From TrEMBL, chain A:
Pfam families: BBS7_GAE, BBS7_hp, BBS7_pf, Beta-prop_BBS7
Annotated region (Disordered), positions in chain: 196-219, 545-567
UniProt name for this protein: Bardet-Biedl syndrome 7 protein
Limits of the BBS7 platform domain: 564-658
UniProtKB/TrEMBL annotation, chain B:
Species, as recorded: Frankliniella fusca
UniProt keyword Cytoplasm, yes or no: yes
Keyword entries, A-Z: Cell projection, Cilium, Cytoplasm, Cytoskeleton
This protein's name: Bardet-Biedl syndrome 2 protein homolog
Compartments in which it is found: Cell projection, Cilium; Cytoplasm, Cytoskeleton
Domain Ciliary BBSome complex subunit 2 middle region: 172-279
């Protein structure tokens, strides 16, 4: 951490979505730049800072929410044209705020992500044709000079889109970041050719009559976690224009090199430190002025980090490892929507400009603004500037307050006016996210409001453990649940002053599905609360995964070969019956998290991994048949219960057959054993600690001395995951019962013995002892009778 | 972030809350802390003397040993778990601070400079907390020791001229000039959530908190800082709360120190998560904060740099010590003030803009009524929420309770209700979230206040139409009277009941109307009582909702009041409440509680039995210890000989004796616990008896009881409880 940056607050706008702020290029090196920012009220504004005062360049009228702001410009010119996407439209503004493009795409979906690329004559016959890449939820569209030149339906939600720089690649190559953990590299030229040939705008390789033409999907790069943000490495893709940075849902940043013919190679640059924080924005900028670009990462938990890495240098190759070190970290209490490096506040000082969800724009500047040396003349003038700025702000506030008083009176008068008058709660903008943290097998719920939150009520109709998050300052209070009500959990969080964001950790139990109701009451007048309902599926701890091995772009055949070689003992569950693909997909959506609503093309194959036990679940289904394979009998058991219930409720007759691999129980046990053993050891150490402390150290065996020495670490681990062993035991019990259930043996009576083994058996023989329990069905049933 | 002016490492684990500072040589401050047990000693007390004079005088032998590694640290063996630590001028003639160390069974006053004990006293009630200082009415400084239900004050000779009882185990003490008369009063926080103010031995003030007050610290004037077990920290001026804040962490130490150098002390708090912060004592605004890696163990205020002014010294549980003062803080605060102000203003602007937008959208959309998105949370503007508080006698599954009934005046539904009130729920809130099918415009909340205290309950009701995603929040506050859990029996036929066995009776020279007014204010009645024609007597019967017992309050026109209840605590509460309502400065009562008094006899007998057993066990222990010594020698002899067979015999005998020892130790333990329990019960009874009286009579009960207890005079004690006189 060699960089020292100081926070300077600039302005406030409406609520912003990710990637809705840009810095316009400056006219010279280290000269002040202008900010362009679009908010959810549809206002696009551009401003610069002069002596600490905000100087507005232009501001548009409100409209639909702005989902993206991109800069573009013809090759060879300055990229200072501003493109914004809102709903189904794309608007273009000059840097002065003049509208030069108003384009209604007529797309069915509203635009979620956008990228603008100008292409040169060498590729197309147009001179400097602007190409818009627009993505809705799952559909990718490309427009050249506002003319539809092809589209592609992705298998899962598209989080972000980017094009490789055309001037370098001499082609149109689009990269889609998809929620199923795949970076899809599309050949835009191919798409265009297909579109012109009249092929249906279906890009799937296996479907459609357009099999003769090559697939527009050039590569599918599988990364372990869903990518959420894309950015060209070094802002221009490197020397060959092939390097793309991607940020993932768990906060990591990777670098992928998209070459034309060989499968793209990728690797991690930055590892996650705080799970549950997705990357929302990436940028590269030389902050320290040493000629090397720094990587700036903004995440939705409010962290901004700056890294120095050799991977951004021209000619860097993704296949090589580069040193990465953290130069700076900052954590703000709101989620970061965009980060950009540049010069804004003071000429000559580089800074990171950050915009947050609530619309705050602030800088982390290299200029030193702390007043330690308050005697020299420069900082005196600075404080005069500051004083004037404060006065201006105060004047603005008092103006607003007056206006507000008038409105408030009018509101109250309206309320008393007539009997038919209605009081309408303003629409509360609550940014919520429920994501599974695989490392901890727990859910992370983050709630964010535009104004400070007063309190949050969380109600659940399934048993969940609510864990406190260290960085929360809210006072947590668990309320008693009356048995006759359906409530299993009622928790209130009373937030401290100026808290706009609340994080909650939840632990779910597989097999119990239900709803989580979250009532958020912000501190606004008139006081109101917003309800958000979140569904917890029965297989809540399963997360989307790729087939074994994340080799660069393994294709379908390789997968099947791998499956054949996969030594896991899979149990099978098959459904046959008169159901449609959409129906079975809907059932699965109710069973598993992270599935998009749209049924994929048949035959669909999905792969999930259990975050706690790392067992796999493969689902392949089509009209009339569905097959599930898992090496965890509990998973199969839950699926069987839920699916048969769903089919019955739709009164569809379904044949369910189940083949349980005899080894799958012990296999799952072996998979979970390392964690179980670790936790069991921790439990034993913990219970020894107090006793050991009373003993004479000299007489202790080295083994016990080691325990004493690591006391702090042990307590820390227990504190971080309290009752983890109990939870594992719960899973073990489920597994144990399910393992024998499929053989028609009820072993509930033997559960105490199983648990006793976990707590008492010596660690070295624990696995054997447990396996023995799993292998004696006959003896068990005898002993029960 | 603040920059400390010094940091140092004590290299020992410090017990939280047991840190003090003293000038043991009269001029140099020494940080003193209780440390966790190491292999030789049980929690030795560590004394850190950075300015220790080197020379022959400091070569001390005795109870303290100077550390070989660090020449500034000395350790004092206590051989018991230190439960409280304090330093102060206890000796009126010496210009030096005396260290007072409390354990669960003893108090030791120790002169560090001359390395000798001032006194050592066994205290049966234990020492949970100690303060040293002057108390009004006493000439010499006292070491006040708070134990289980009692407070003892020791002077430098080891005499205890001060003794009083409190409602429960004492958790915190503070000496403070409460009434600004130039002399200190004693403030006591105890396990029954109460704060009591004693002037000499008369209680002059009492208030109830929402949790146990774990720390009390005097601020300037009559102001006092307090910290509760649930993470609340705040400031009282006399018994009026100035402000309070609540955190999810627990406060470990509270101290008053002027950190920003403005001449007014700030309230410095050390938290269990390693944070320290200083708050303005008037507003609670944070002026300074810093972070340690682990929990704070204690805060102290002393001159550690010999620069003529004191520093704020913070000590964490892993032995890290940091000192702060105002010198470096000033400039740092200046630098950040501007940015903070800008951020604050921007945030305010954001909130204002948002509110403005809300009103605008409201007026806009009320233009075209109806037909809008139904999810938006629309309710008629005239919707109002009515609340009634009544007593519900309950059903089989749900006992009798106080019922809060919320009703809207139209078809809107109440989605959920959040009731914020401290001290009556497990957490601070109670939520009622009915099932989707049971949503209606009426919602009932059952409350079970566990104690008889007046309560303010804050209600937030989420009101909307069915199936909306946004709700209006109605906020209101209701007051629950102190004796809400007692319901008036209104049968017209007079209850034929036998003469009550348990009652208190007293005379007041007040009109019946005034008493009726008191009843109206303090009980939850369906309709207010009306005073009948003068000259008639008043008789009211209540049923306690908690246990169904009967409470009878009657008053003769002549002024004789009889409060009949088997619950002595309740009788005390009623007397205290009535007395404060009528502004009585002194009240003597006659109390009849035969069952309680029967207990007393039993307890006193048990105490003497237990003490006998204890002596016996002690002798037994000595005998067995001798045996052990003997057996070990023999076993060793046999080993050296080498006679393995007899060695095994000796060892098996040794094992038997050892088992016996463990057994008798366990007996001793349970014996001791039983003794403690009974002593606590006796203290409690005296306290309850005292609470039946007001003013001087109240103090008399405590003092007379003490004398009676010391002389083991049961009859006198019983007489004191009954009549308040010896």
């Amino acid at each position: 951490m060699d960089l020292e940056l100081t926070r300077v607050d600039y302005s406030v706008t409406g609520i912003t979505l990710p990637c809705t702020m840009e810095l316009l290029p400056s006219s010279g090196p280290r000269l002040s730049q202008k900010v362009v920012i679009g908010d959810q009220e549809g206002v696009l504004q551009s401003f610069s800072m002069k002596k600490g005062e905000q100087q507005m360049v232009f501001k548009t009228l409100p409209g639909p929410a702005i989902s993206r702001v991109c800069l573009g410009g013809a090759t060879g010119t300055v990229k200072d044209k501003i493109f914004i996407s809102k709903k189904g439209e794309v608007h273009g503004y000059t840097k002065k705020g003049k509208l030069f493009l108003g384009f209604d795409t007529c797309l069915a979906e509203s635009i979620k992500s956008m990228y603008v690329e100008y292409l040169k004559q060498a590729v197309y016959w147009h001179v400097n044709a602007s190409t818009l890449l627009l993505c809705g939820n799952t559909v990718y569209n490309q427009f050249r000079d506002c003319e539809d030149t092809g589209s592609f339906l992705s298998a899962d939600t598209i989080n972000d889109v980017i094009a490789l720089p055309g001037e370098k690649t001499r082609s149109l190559v689009a990269v889609l970041a998809c929620a199923d953990g795949v970076l899809r590299v599309l050949d835009g030229v191919e798409l265009e050719a297909q579109a012109r040939a009249g092929a249906p705008p279906q890009g799937r390789p296996s479907t459609g009559p357009a099999r003769s033409t090559a697939s527009p999907v050039r590569h599918e790069v599988r990364v372990p976690r869903a990518p959420t943000a894309l950015h060209l490495a070094a802002n221009d893709g490197g020397a060959a224009g092939q390097n793309v940075l991607f940020g993932t849902e768990d906060g990591r940043v990777g670098l992928v090199t998209v070459t034309r013919n060989t499968p793209p190679a990728w690797r991690w640059l930055v590892d996650a430190e705080r799970p549950g924080a997705a990357v929302s924005s990436l940028h590269c900028h030389d902050l320290s002025g040493d000629g090397d670009l720094d990587l700036i990462v903004g995440r939705d938990d409010g962290s901004v980090e700056v890294f120095a890495t050799a991977a951004l240098e021209p000619g860097a190759d993704a296949s090589q490892d580069h040193d990465v070190y953290r130069r700076f970290t900052y954590s703000c209490p709101e989620s970061v929507s965009s980060v950009r490096g540049g010069v804004l506040g003071t000429q000559g000082y580089d800074e990171v400009v950050v915009s947050t969800y609530t619309g705050l724009v602030f800088g982390l500047t290299t200029e030193s603004v702390d007043g330690v040396a308050s005697m020299d003349s420069q900082s005196v003038s600075l404080s005069q500037d500051a004083r004037r700025r404060l006065q201006l702000l105060r004047a603005e506030l008092s103006g607003l307050e007056e206006k507000l008083a008038v409105e408030r009176d009018r509101y109250l008068a309206a309320a008393e006016d007539s009997d038919t008058a209605l009081s309408i709660v303003p629409h509360l903008n609550i940014n919520h996210k429920l994501s599974l943290i695989r490392e901890e097998a727990a859910y992370h719920l983050s709630l964010e409001a535009a104004t400070p939150i007063d309190n949050v009520l969380v109600q659940s109709d399934v048993p969940v453990d609510i864990l406190d998050v260290e960085r929360n300052s809210a006072v947590v209070s668990f309320s008693d649940c009356e048995p006759e009500s359906d409530n299993k959990v009622l928790v209130t969080f009373r937030c401290q002053m100026n808290t706009t964001r609340l994080d909650v950790r939840l632990r779910t139990v597989e097999g119990r599905a239900g709803h989580l109701r979250v009532y958020v009451t912000p501190l606004v007048a008139p006081k109101c609360a917003a309800l958000r309902v979140l569904y917890l599926p029965p297989l809540s701890l399963h997360a989307r995964a790729h087939h074994q091995g994340h080799g660069p772009g393994p294709d379908q055949d390789a997968d099947e070969n791998q499956d054949a070689a996969d030594p896991r003992p899979y149990s099978l569950l098959s459904l046959r019956g008169p159901f449609s693909l959409a129906e079975v997909h809907a059932w699965l959506t109710a069973c598993l998290p992270d599935l998009s609503d749209k049924p994929p093309a048949e035959p669909a194959t999905l792969c999930f991994q259990n975050a706690c036990m790392s067992t796999m679940l493969f689902c392949s289904y089509r009209k009339g048949e569905a097959d599930f394979r898992s090496d965890n009998v509990s998973t199969i058991s839950i699926l069987k219960d839920v699916l048969s219930k769903m089919a019955t409720s739709r009164s569809i007759h379904v044949d369910i057959s189940c083949v349980v691999h005899p080894e799958s129980g012990p296999h799952a046990l072996r998979l979970m054993f390392p964690v179980l053993r670790e936790q069991a050891a921790l439990h034993r150490d913990l219970s020894l600690l107090d006793a050991l402390r009373d003993l004479d150290k000299d007489a202790l065996a080295p083994k016990f001395l080691a325990i004493l020495e690591s006391e702090a670490a042990i307590r820390e681990r227990v504190k971080r995951h309290p009752t983890y062993l109990d939870r594992l035991c719960g899973m073990l019990t489920d597994l144990f019962i399910d393992h024998f259930k499929f053989r028609g043996v009820n072993v509930k009576g033997r559960v105490p013995q199983l648990l006793d083994t976990v707590y008492k058996e010596p660690l070295d023989t624990l696995l054997e002892a447990l396996l023995r329990l799993f292998q004696e069905p006959a003896a068990l049933s005898d002993s029960r009778v | 972030m603040a920059v400390p002016v010094f940091t140092l490492q004590l290299n020992s684990k410090i017990l939280p809350g047991r840190v003090t500072i003293g000038k043991y040589d009269g001029s140099h401050s020494c940080l003193t802390a209780a440390t966790t047990a190491d292999k030789e000693r049980l929690s030795p007390v560590l004394i850190h003397s950075p300015h220790r004079r080197l020379g022959p005088t400091s070569q001390i032998t005795g109870a303290t040993t100077w550390s070989q590694v660090n020449k500034e640290i000395s350790l004092l063996s206590v051989n018991r778990n230190v439960s409280a630590l304090a330093a102060g001028r206890l000796h009126p003639e010496l210009e030096q601070d005396i260290l007072v160390v409390g354990t669960q069974s003893s108090v030791l006053a120790y002169n560090v400079e001359s390395n000798k004990d001032l006194f050592y006293k066994e205290v049966a009630d234990g020492a949970n907390v100690i303060v040293v200082g002057n108390l009004s009415g006493y000439e010499n400084p006292l070491a006040l020791v708070g134990g289980n239900c009692s407070i003892q004050g020791f002077d430098y000779k080891g005499n205890d001229p001060y003794w009083t009882v409190s409602g429960d185990n004492v958790r915190s003490l503070a000496l403070l000039d409460y009434d600004l008369d130039g002399e200190n009063e004693l403030i006591v926080g105890s396990d029954d959530f109460d704060l009591r103010v004693f002037k000499e031995d008369v209680m002059v003030g009492e208030t109830s908190e929402t949790e146990v007050a774990t720390i009390l610290a005097p601020l300037r004037g009559s102001k006092m800082a307090y910290a509760l077990a649930n993470g609340t920290v705040g400031v009282y001026n006399k018994l009026h709360r100035v402000w309070r804040v609540k955190s999810k962490n627990r406060a470990v130490a509270v101290l008053s120190y002027d950190i920003d150098g403005d001449g007014v002390e700030e309230l410095v708090t050390g938290w269990s998560n390693g944070k320290i912060d200083a708050r303005n004592s008037r507003t609670g605004e944070v002026v300074f904060k810093d972070n340690f890696n682990c929990s704070i163990a204690g805060l102290a205020d002393g001159d550690y740099r010999l620069e003529g002014r004191s520093q704020l010294i913070c000590c964490s549980v892993d032995g890290e010590v940091r000192g702060y003062d105002s010198s470096r803080l000033g400039t740092l605060i200046e630098g950040n003030v501007h940015q903070e102000a800008v951020r604050d203003l921007l945030q305010k602007k954001q909130a204002l803009l948002m509110e403005l937008k809300n009103y605008e959208s409201n007026t806009r959309s009320s233009g075209f009524t109806g037909g809008q998105n139904l999810n938006a949370g629309i309710i008629p503007a005239k919707t109002s929420l009515q609340t009634t508080v009544s007593i519900n006698m309950g059903t089989k599954s749900k006992g009798p309770h106080v019922e809060l009934c919320l009703t809207t005046n139209n078809e809107t539904i109440i989605r959920a209700v959040l009731v914020f009130a401290e001290g009556i729920f497990a957490g601070e809130t109670h939520v009622v979230h009915p099932h989707d099918e049971e949503l209606s415009s009426t919602l009932k909340v059952a409350l079970f206040p566990p104690r008889d205290v007046p309560l303010d309950i804050h209600i937030k009701a989420l009101v909307g139409l069915p199936r909306t995603e946004q709700f209006h929040v109605f906020e209101l506050t209701r007051h629950l009277p102190r004796f809400a859990m007692y319901t008036l029996i209104t049968t017209t036929a007079p209850l034929q009941q036998e003469q009550p066995q348990n009652f208190v009776s007293f005379f007041i020279s007040e009109r019946i109307q005034r008493v009726i007014l008191w009843v109206n204010q303090n009980f939850l009645l369906s309709s207010e009582l009306e005073a009948e024609a003068s000259g008639s007597s008043l008789s009211l019967s209540f049923t306690a909702l908690r246990d169904g017992s009967l409470l009878n309050i009657s008053m003769h026109p002549a002024g004789r009041v009889v409060v009949a209840t088997p619950n002595m605590t309740l009788a005390g509460d009623l007397v205290q409440s009535l007395a404060s309502f009528l502004n009585l400065s002194n009240l003597q009562v006659t109390a009849e509680f035969p069952q309680e008094l029967a207990h007393l006899e039993e307890w006193l007998e048990k105490v003497s039995n237990l003490q006998e057993v204890r002596i016996q066990l002690g002798a037994d222990l000595a005998h067995r210890a001798g045996l052990v010594r003997n057996l070990i020698v023999r076993a060793e002899d046999a080993r050296l000989l080498p006679d393995l067979k007899s060695m095994r015999d000796w060892h098996s005998q040794l094992k038997e004796v050892n088992d016996d020892l463990i057994n008798s130790y366990n007996i001793r333990c349970s014996n001791h616990n039983e003794l403690l329990d009974i002593l606590k019960q006796i203290n409690l009874l005296i306290q309850k008896a005292a609470r039946l009286r007001v003013g001087q009579s109240k103090a008399d009960v405590v003092n007379l009881s003490r004398t009676a207890l010391q002389s083991n005079n049961l009859h006198s004690l019983i007489k004191i409880v009954r009549t308040g006189e010896a």
